[in-house]
Every structure is written in C-alpha cells, then in structure tokens.
Amino acid sequence: MSQDTFPIRKVDHVRFHVGNAKQSAYFYQHVFGFDITGFAGLETGQRDEVDYLLEQNDLKFVFTAPIRPGHPMSERIAYHGDYVQDIAFEVDDVDWAYETAVARGAGAAREPFTLEDANGTVRLASVHTYGDTLHTFVNRDHYRGHFMPGFAARNEPGDPIGLIEVDHCVGNVELGKMNVWVKWYEQVLSFTQLISFDDKDISTEYTALMSKVMSNGNQRVKFPINEPAEGKKKSQIDEYLEFFGGAGVQHVALRTTDICTVVARLRARGMQFLHVPKNYYEELPNRVGQIDEDIKELADLGILVDRDEDGYLLQIFTKPIADRPTLFYEIIERKGAKSFGKGNFKALFEAIEREQALRGTL
User: Fold this and answer.
1) What pTM did the predictor assign?
2) Buried b / exposed e across 43-55, counting CB within 10 Å, b at 16+?
3) How far is CA 327 from the centre of its chain?
4) Hey, which CATH number is domain 10-156, 3.40.50.300, 2.60.40.10, 3.40.190.10, 3.10.180.10?
5) Per-residue DSSP letter, 320
6) Could you read off the pLDDT of 199-251 as tens digits, one per residue?
7) If 0-12 CB within 10 Å is exposed, 13-18 middle and 19+ buried, where does residue 78 land?
C-alpha cells in the first residue's frame, strides 16, 4: 500500500455562503432533518456576519451570511447565488498541511491561526481551489468544546432522516480545466485518480461531459471533477457555469444506510427529485441482478441502482435547491459498491435534459 503523503482524516464540515443564514438553517432543519447546534453572530460578539451550525450524524453544515451593507461576501453571493464556499478537512497538523499545500502550488487564502476559549484551542488555515472554493484545514485535538470557539451552543432539534456523512463533492470546472484541477489535487493534496469517464461514457443524443474522480489516501474524501464536452446542445455543466458564473461545487452526495426511508421522508417534506421513466425499472433486474430492495418501491420513489465488481449502490438526485439551476444533492446508499453509478448516467442525464428543456437552457 502506498504511503499517504498528505494525511486528511475526513471532510470536517461544508460551509455555505448564503443571503439569509436563518432561513437556510430553517430549510435544512425542516427538510433534511438537521439539528441546529451552534450559532455565531451579534449576540456572540461577531459583528459583520452570522453563522449557523447544523449537524446530523457525521455531517456538519455551516451557513454563513453577511449582516452589514458592503460586506465583501455580499458581492460573491450576488454573483454566484447561495453556494458551497468551503469544503473543510480535519487534519493532524494544520501548519504542516498549509505550508505543504502552498509549497506545492496552492494559493494561500488564510495563514494558520488559532481560535481559543475556555474549552481550549482550534487551529485553522485555508487555501484556494477551483473558482471561489476554499479548503480549510482544521484540527481540534486540543479543544473540549463543541465545534470551535466563537459558537454559542444551540439546541434546536430537527427530525433526522438518516443522513450519515459526505460521500463525495462534485466540482464543475470550465472547458479544458478538468485535467488542470486533477493535476492540482494530485500535486498539492496527493490525491489519486480513482476512475475517469469520457464523453462516450457520459453522453446522450444532445449533450456530454467528462469527469475524473479524485480521492485522498484513506479514500474518505472523494471529489469528482467535471468539465463540459462537445455536444449538439448546452450541457448541464455549461448551464451550471453560466448561471453560477464560473467553476464551483455542483452537488454534494450524502450517504445513508436506508435510502428508501430517506427519500420517502424527503418527498413528504416537499423535496423534488429528477424523474426517471418507468422503463428504466423494467430493464433493472437484467442489468444489476439480485438486490435486497423491492424494485416496485424503488420505481415509486425514483431511486436508481448500479452495480460494480464490489457490490451495488442506490442513488437519487434532487432538483436544484435554490432559484438558480446550480447546486443540488445526491442521496446515496452503498451496498459494497465503490463506484459512482456509471450505468445510470444516461438515464440521469436525460432526466436533467428534460429539466433544462423546461427552463429553456438546453
């Protein structure tokens, strides 16, 4: 086994920059079932912005919003809409991670600094990746408190639906930039390429894209990176780049061990998913073989299935969750499979194209 030359424990948290953090927190609490567990703002001495911390099992989402006119964050939110601004990593040594990443070519965003309160210290530093996205390195080995200094504890329970952790985060980058960022993750963070898909794998009659999946040493952090490919019409990646205003996080995949329950509960709470035609399920038994789930239930819920040499997976994709056709979510359950649903690409992309046609952006 090769030595991991850039140790990353896991995704620590995902930070979103949003126009209204209070309303975003309410949405994620009442639809996705997160607990609101922390808050920072005027009441805690934070003068220019507000943070809400939401948690469910090993998932931590932070929603940050500016609260004063002229805040520089406001310009980015006006340009991109609400967006994933930071995918933070828990690491053994923040200073080493930052210095190594910068020495290997990462753009410096924030030099190492320490947050401290009566419960101890948390060390942080940040580097730039594609677009306006950051990776923050976090270590709280010397912290006994909850999350990090500056946050007041909140106890506003949601109704958890069984989401466990971030399975992967997908980045969309401009035409010709996929290999640039693949090389960046290889050189800077010592990621390796798990798998690649070209326009023969990911295409329909009208559109296509290219994708490479990068993973860290312990394979707990997985980042597919997409770029558009030539097609007859505008691909979903082109649409994203146009409405987002450049490269950014396209979707976050959330892992569960009971996808049928999660999706049924999300649907009951108003979440909308991409629609898959019924004939997809007629062909399913021949394509994926024996599975534990009832195919009729999967068809009723619109859940996709794919198999690889290690097992199978179940997945489903929401429609965009905000006004712009940009950020959406994937719910995924892995029954051994380590792949990303290659056998579902055609059905998924045709479903996305139907939505694009409705929006007039295909």
Assistant:
1) 0.95
2) eeebeebbbbbbb
3) 9
4) 3.10.180.10
5) P
6) 666 666 666 778 899 999 888 999 999 998 877 677 889 999 999 999 999 99
7) exposed
